[in-house]
């Protein structure tokens, strides 16, 4: 399932021209980070974690609604930004040939063996 999403996200990014010019690994990680920062900004602006709204420019004016009229309206909010984080990760894995599903399964299995609040970090 995850590998199918990785392939689809990467194929879409390629078709939209996001890989026409080579990017460094640092650039790609920065793009992932920027999506997480946009989720944080929505939180700072007082939006609820599950709040979703939709926007579209019509005659130069940005219209906002809480019901998506059709798929051409851009979803916004924390859920959408977190989806963008995952989509960027999927695209990166597609680009670099990373088997994300295996990596997730291995990491989750390892994390299950770790002690409570391992590492002693506060945050």
From TrEMBL:
It comes from Paenibacillus lycopersici. CDD domains: NTP-PPase_u5 (cd11542). It comes from the Bacteria. This is NTP pyrophosphohydrolase MazG putative catalytic core domain-containing protein.
């Amino acid at each position: 399932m995850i590998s199918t999403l990785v392939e689809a996200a990467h194929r879409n990014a390629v078709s939209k021209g996001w890989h026409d010019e080579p990017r460094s690994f640092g650039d790609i990680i920065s793009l992932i980070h920027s999506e997480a920062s946009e989720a944080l900004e929505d939180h700072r602006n007082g939006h609820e974690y599950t709040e979703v709204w939709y926007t579209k420019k019509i005659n130069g004016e940005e219209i906002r609604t809480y019901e998506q009229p059709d798929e051409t309206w851009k979803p916004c909010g924390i859920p959408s930004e977190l989806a963008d984080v995952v989509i960027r990760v999927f695209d990166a894995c597609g680009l670099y040939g990373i088997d994300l599903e295996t990596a997730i399964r291995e990491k989750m299995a390892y994390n299950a063996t770790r002690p409570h609040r391992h590492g002693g970090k506060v945050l």
